[in-house]
Amino acid sequence: MAGETILIVDDAQQNHHFLNDYVLVPNGYKPMSARDGVEGLQMALRNKPDLILLDLNMPRMDGMEVLRQLNANNSDIPVILMTFHGSEDIAVEVYRMGVKDYVIKPFYPDEMLRAIEKSLGESRLKKEKDALIERMMQSNKELQARVNELNVLYSTGKSVAQLMPMDQLLPRLLDAAVQTTGAEEAYLMLGDGDHLTCRAAKRKDQTRAVPANVVATDPLAAMAIKNARSLVADAERLKRIPGAPNSAAYVPVMIQDRVLGAMGIRNLSPDSPQFTTHHAALLSALSDYAAIALENARNLDMLRSNNS
Q1: Sequence-ordered list of residues with C-beta below 8 angstroms from that of 99, at least 6 positions apart, any chain
Q2: pLDDT tens digits, one per residue of 148-205
Q3: Which domain holds residue 209?
Q4: Whole-angstrom distance, CA of residue 169 vs CA of residue 289
Q5: Cα–Cα distance for residue pair 132/145, rounded to 1 Å
Q6: Residue 113 near residue 80, CB atoms below 8 Å
Q7: pLDDT exceeds cutoff 70 at 303
Q8: Is residue 197 included in any domain, yes or no?
Q9: Residue range 235-245, pLDDT digits in tens
Q10: What is the pLDDT of residue 193?
Q11: Would 10 be classed as within a structural domain?
């Protein structure tokens, strides 16, 4: 694999031409040039090339000082040192400073190319390993989030099965919605004739949801109820609505084809995350619990009425 950027740091112009014309460009690499150590150090830290070909003896700042400065700046750019005078002492010192290889001048194109491929090969493997570790960590993080969501849904389902009173259960459903989605606010509204009644609410300044029984005016909840489908609205869509939140998701609370109300989550802070269809799916699962609980309560009331 070629295409990497290689910085040549050398005060001899003929060496730049030789490396560009016979080594780098013919093999698909992108060359950059610096005329001395000072310029080379600045370009390395600013442009982050994939490899540095560094001359040992230069004016203003020699190759050894460039290496020291790179190390002082925690640079992990691989370096191949070029020198007219190679010795075991130099090799030991430069390898200790992180140099991947060093090449004695004058060198053949194939000799430098082998050193470049070796150094970049190690760098490519490291990048692939780092990328793999990052993907694994992200996957584990997402898996843990899914496990946490399932645990919350399972716990909430047990609460529904226990026939908990509505003034306790509905706030618990909203707490579960906040916990699984990270929402700042959550509301559960039920249809009551020609208007909506908020039966539970969790506001931004509250730590937990509380029962409620107030008439609600919420155009997004009304839309979810009217269309009998979930909706996710981002900041761009909501900016046309006066007093709208930064992000919102609403789902209908339904039993079969009958819409009982809506459950919604909202983020108010300008820098808060935007909700996604995944958040709406979690909310939908909780709204199903709400619908079951409401239907159970209705059936229980009917049974008691018939027995009285």
Answers
A1: 67, 79, 80, 81
A2: 777 777 777 776 666 678 888 899 999 999 999 999 999 999 987 788 999 999 999 9
A3: 164-307
A4: 10
A5: 20
A6: no
A7: no
A8: yes
A9: 888 887 777 88
A10: 74
A11: yes
CATH number of the domain that residue 259 is part of: 3.30.450.40
Tokens at residue 96, please? 């200790």
Residue (of 289, 263, 284) closest to 169 by Cα position: 289
Q: What span, in angstroms and rounded, lies between the C-alpha atoms of 197 and 298?
A: 17
Query: Which pLDDT band holds residue 300 (cuts at 50, 70, 90)?
Result: low
pLDDT at 308 over 70: no
CB-based contacts of 39, cutoff 8 Å, min separation 6: 9
* 17-30 per-position pLDDT tens digit: 999 999 999 999 99
Q: What is the CA radius of gyration of the chain?
A: 33
- Give 63-80 pLDDT, tens digit per residue: 889 999 999 999 889 999
Tokens of 241: 């609505």
State how many domains the chain has.
Answer: 2
Instruction: Indicate if 122 and 171 belong to the same structural domain.
Output: no
d(CA 225, CA 194): 12
Q: How far is 136 from 67, CA to CA, in rounded Å?
A: 33
8 Å CB contact between 116 and 51: yes
Between 4 and 92, where is the model more confident? 4
Give the Å distances, CA to CA, from 294 to 105, 130, 253, 280: 84, 51, 10, 20
Q: For residue 56, what are the CA distances in angstroms to 59, 61, 67?
A: 10, 9, 10
Reported as half-sphere exposure (CB side, CA atoms, 13 A), residue 46 has a value of: 8
List alpha helices for the chain, DSSP H. 13-19, 37-47, 63-72, 88-96, 109-161, 166-181, 219-227, 235-238, 277-307
